[in-house]
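> call design_seq(struct)
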């Protein structure tokens, strides 16, 4: 089978080798690789892929004079800064979760300190800049009020003029200037239209993660795998950290059939296949036998090839550089399953809150948004293009 990855830079090659502690000892014998590495580029890659905690630990394990002391010092500085940040996030997570519980708000922490502990059993092995909290949509208004009492204000809120916002969006961002902390309140794991478990189902299967004295909850492993794979695919896997997270999760259990059950249930088997190709061809990691058959489909390999291109070229799918816009748009459409594609086209014909923002109408005239939809959509597109060129 032809490899997905073409010519890989020396810096990316070394980075990938250092992500696996089992391969570190063998690296001492590869002096040729070290001699060809641009260390400034290497450090940029560790930051871009958000893997410098793992790289630092494995370089210390390597203990080789082939790595410049200033490189080790830089990684150590970032490692310490991240550890302090994760400790601060842990304290803030405990504070807000305690208040949520006082107000009878059920919350599941998606990332941050909880995910680092779930995957690596410590707080320093993974980076995080904010807290992601999953709630029941019915609690959103109450949650907004409670966060206000804790010093959090809405940092960005999508238009909520029509009911479509509940489907199209999946989170609202809150920021506390005094704490320097951002909290994303999610009512879904992914923006819609999507197929995923309900909050009530995920809450029923939640697990307590022992990172604080107060009770804080994370996703059960099967729901966590569903979240990590759909999240990584939605972002085009442009950060290697998302692949290493899943690889670590799968290594922690032998019951892989239980973990992939939800992905099959919601018709995302091809995303399992995409991951299989990427972790095998990009990270050079072995694949659990139960997952191998999912990589046989043409769609899985095609999606993996697109994502590998994003990884090699450092393409942020969410904010594509010039010349990559169409590739990223096409990719985001291609990862949808059949049901999502139908819903996508159906919703295109219906008005949304962005239309209502352009032309506010009284509720009694909302029906006019349907015939006006093409005109309002064209107007918004023209304005975006105008300001983009002007900027």
């Amino acid at each position: 089978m032809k490899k997905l990855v073409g010519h890989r830079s020396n810096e990316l090659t070394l980075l990938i080798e250092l992500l696996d502690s089992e391969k570190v000892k063998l690296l001492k014998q590869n002096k040729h690789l070290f001699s060809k590495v641009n260390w400034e580029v290497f450090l940029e890659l560790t930051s871009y892929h958000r893997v410098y905690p793992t790289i630092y630990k494995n370089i210390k394990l390597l203990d080789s004079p082939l790595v410049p002391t200033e490189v080790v010092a830089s990684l150590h500085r970032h490692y310490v800064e991240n550890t302090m940040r994760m400790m601060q996030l842990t304290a803030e997570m405990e504070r807000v979760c305690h208040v949520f519980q006082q107000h009878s708000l059920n919350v599941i922490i998606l990332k941050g300190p909880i995910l680092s502990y779930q995957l690596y059993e410590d707080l320093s092995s993974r980076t995080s800049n904010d807290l992601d909290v999953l709630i029941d949509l019915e609690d959103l208004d109450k949650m907004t009020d409670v966060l206000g009492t804790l010093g959090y204000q809405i940092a960005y809120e999508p238009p909520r003029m029509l009911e479509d916002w509940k489907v199209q969006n999946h989170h609202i961002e809150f920021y506390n200037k005094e704490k320097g902390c951002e909290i994303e309140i999610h009512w879904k794991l992914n923006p819609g239209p999507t197929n995923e478990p309900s909050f009530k189902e995920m809450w029923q299967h939640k697990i307590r993660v022992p990172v604080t004295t107060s009770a804080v909850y994370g996703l059960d492993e099967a729901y966590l795998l569903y979240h990590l794979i759909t999240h990584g695919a939605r972002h085009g896997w442009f950060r290697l950290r998302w692949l290493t997270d899943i690889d670590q999760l799968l290594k922690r259990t032998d019951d892989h059939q239980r973990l992939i059950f939800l992905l099959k249930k919601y018709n995302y088997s091809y995303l399992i296949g995409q991951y299989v190709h990427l972790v095998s061809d990009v990270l050079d990691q072995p694949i659990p036998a139960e997952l191998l058959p999912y990589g046989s489909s043409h769609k899985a390999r095609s999606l993996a090839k697109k994502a590998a291109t994003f990884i090699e070229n450092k393409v942020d799918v969410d904010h594509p550089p010039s010349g990559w816009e169409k590739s990223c748009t096409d990719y985001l459409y291609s990862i949808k399953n059949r049901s999502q594609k139908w819903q996508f086209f159906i919703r295109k014909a219906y008005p949304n809150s962005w239309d209502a923002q352009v032309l506010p109408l009284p509720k009694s005239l909302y029906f006019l948004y349907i015939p006006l939809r093409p005109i309002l959509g064209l107007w918004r597109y023209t304005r975006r293009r105008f300001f983009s060129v002007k900027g």
